[in-house]
């Protein structure tokens, strides 16, 4: 029986980069390496335009019934004045939360071919291989109460709540330690325990769970220092585990170490390993429709899907090798061209497909 994959192109450059990732899936389908059924649905602004909701019931149902989800990106300036509940981001956040995709894996790997595309010196970033494990369904993104209220003196006040229950910290800790066991066996937990009670509990639970993983070395770092260390000497890190919002911020920093945010895939997993896969970059409305976006983060997200949800390690390796091959051939989209000549979104996708066939 074929495996159902939900395809959610979304907004901005989403449809363009998803097209290229779908070509890769279809290529594996054609050479009989993979038996998948792809079903496309709207999310984010595109879904709002179609049906008035950024996460229509039909899309949610498709995602629930699919074995894995591939998403492009959501958001755009035309939606910024909508009330919060209707904004594209709500579609993505709703999906993460409805499907309980609490464990977000964001690998920052430097392809050696791109060492010069990073704004940091090659010796700082060469060989870089960090995994950021970001808690994705809790913390300040979802905490209640939240809102904007009017005080007695007529002044407005905005408020959000940063809250983590022990079970939420425990399960993300296990995710991080499990990942570390398959890598360098080092976990750095990033928090703000010098100021926040939530972080104090976070640290306590991390230490407790670490006892189940005697082989893994656990360290702690305050988030301000972690952001500094990431650009100072990033190779000190193996796995970093952190709260939702810190992970959002640190993963963008880590992305730039690798030359471009256009290179970074991600996996968002539930407790059974079912997952949603998406590039960590956004919808880039400024270049949408120009055939300039880098499709590699999305193509590498397909590879993560094969590895983490579909148990097809060999195919995942093949895709990663194909990406490496096209970089060897000198193919660059504008974001990684370092001022040199570059190819289009489509040309990059075609090149990966050709490398896969070779
Ligand atoms: C990300 C994005 C999202 C987030 C936005 C689009 C809601 O920045 O996946 O990192 O903040 O989680
Ligand atoms: Mg982000």
Report on this structure:
The protein is of the alpha/beta class and 358 residues long. The chain has helices at 14-30, 44-51, 57-65, 88-98, 122-125, 166-181, 197-210, 223-232, 244-257, 296-308, 313-328, 345-357, and strands at residues 3-10, 36-40, 68-73, 103-109, 129-135, 147-150, 156-159, 186-191, 217-222, 239-242, 267-269, 275-277. It has a 10-stranded mixed beta sheet, sandwiched between helices. A two-stranded antiparallel ribbon has the order 6-7. The model has no long low-confidence stretch (mean pLDDT 96). The two termini are 28 Å apart. It binds 3-isopropylmalic acid (IPM) and magnesium ion (MG). 3-isopropylmalic acid binds at residues 75, 89, 92-93, 248, 280, 282.
Write the layout of secondary structure elements.
Blueprint: E1 3-10, H1 14-30, E2 36-40, H2 44-51, H3 57-65, E3 68-73, H4 88-98, E4 103-109, H5 122-125, E5 129-135, E6 147-150, E7 156-159, H6 166-181, E8 186-191, H7 197-210, E9 217-222, H8 223-232, E10 239-242, H9 244-257, E11 267-269, E12 275-277, H10 296-308, H11 313-328, H12 345-357
Parallel strand pairs: 1-2, 1-3, 3-12, 5-10, 8-9, 8-10
Antiparallel strand pairs: 4-5, 4-11, 6-7, 11-12
Helix pairs in contact: 1-10, 1-12, 2-4, 6-7, 8-9, 10-11, 11-12
The structure holds 3-isopropylmalic acid and magnesium ion.
Residues 75, 89, 92-93, 248, 280, 282 line the site of 3-isopropylmalic acid.
């Amino acid at each position: 029986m074929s495996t159902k994959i939900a395809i959610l192109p979304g907004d901005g450059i989403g449809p363009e980069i998803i097209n290229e990732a779908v070509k890769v899936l279809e290529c594996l389908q054609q050479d009989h390496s993979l038996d998948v059924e792809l079903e496309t649905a709207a999310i984010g602004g595109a879904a709002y335009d179609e049906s008035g909701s950024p996460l229509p019931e039909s899309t949610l149902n498709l995602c629930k019934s699919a074995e894995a989800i591939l998403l492009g990106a959501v958001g755009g300036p035309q939606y910024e004045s909508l009330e919060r509940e209707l904004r594209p981001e709500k579609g993505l956040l709703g999906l993460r939360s409805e499907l309980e995709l609490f464990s977000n894996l964001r690998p920052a790997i430097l392809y050696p071919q791109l060492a010069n595309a990073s704004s940091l010196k090659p010796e700082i970033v060469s060989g870089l291989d960090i995994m950021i494990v970001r808690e994705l369904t809790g913390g300040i993104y979802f905490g209640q109460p939240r809102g904007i209220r009017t005080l007695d003196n007529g002044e407005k006040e905005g408020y959000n709540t940063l809250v983590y229950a022990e079970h939420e910290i425990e399960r993300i800790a296990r995710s991080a330690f499990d990942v570390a066991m398959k890598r360098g066996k080092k976990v750095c937990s990033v928090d703000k325990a010098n100021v926040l009670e939530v972080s104090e509990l976070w640290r306590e639970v991390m230490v407790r769970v670490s006892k189940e993983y005697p082989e893994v070395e656990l360290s702690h770092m305050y988030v301000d220092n972690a952001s500094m260390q990431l650009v100072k000497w990033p190779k000190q890190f193996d796995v970093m585990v952190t709260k939702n919002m810190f992970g959002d911020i640190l993963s963008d920093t880590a992305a730039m170490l690798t030359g471009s945010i256009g290179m970074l895939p991600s996996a968002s997993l539930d407790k059974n390993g079912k997952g949603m896969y998406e590039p960590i970059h956004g919808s880039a409305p400024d270049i949408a429709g120009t055939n300039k976006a880098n499709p590699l983060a999305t193509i590498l997200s397909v590879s993560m899907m094969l590895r983490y949800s579909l148990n097809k390690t060999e195919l995942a390796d093949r895709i990663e090798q194909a990406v490496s091959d096209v970089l060897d051939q000198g193919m660059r989209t504008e974001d990684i061209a370092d001022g040199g000549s570059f190819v289009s979104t489509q040309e990059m996708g075609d090149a990966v497909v050709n490398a896969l066939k070779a």
